[in-house]
Amino acid sequence: MSVWQSVTLGAVTGSRSMMGPAFVAGRLSHSRMVGVGTRLLATGELVADKLPDTPSRLAKGPLAGRAVMGGIAGAAMSRPRAIGFALGATGAVAGAYGLFHARRLAGERSELPDAALGLLEDGVVIGLGRLATRS
Prior knowledge:
Elements: H1 3-15, H2 19-28, H3 32-48, H4 60-76, H5 81-109, H6 114-133
Helix pairs in contact: 1-2, 1-4, 1-5, 1-6, 2-3, 2-4, 2-6, 4-5, 5-6
């Protein structure tokens, strides 16, 4: 079991709900359609995050969804699956709050627009996802 992978993929999912599952599908899925489909969903979310009407990741519904998706990503990367699920879900909630507040603090201390900070967050999340799924 890889605690680091499960928690990290959870944190990635806390920031972008489809990013963790996309990385897991890219590494573990034998179906090209599953890999492409999850990458398309993750890419759509990267765009949607920059829109002004996108709800907060910390609202109850989005946060619960991120916890479930983070749990699924964590479970896929570890055994026993139940522990991986718990680690991934915990990582997702921690990542949602941590990255939200880091982005907000960076916005308060810099002149950067929120969209630019979102792009920076995207880069961090993609880098962490790649590290967590590297063989």
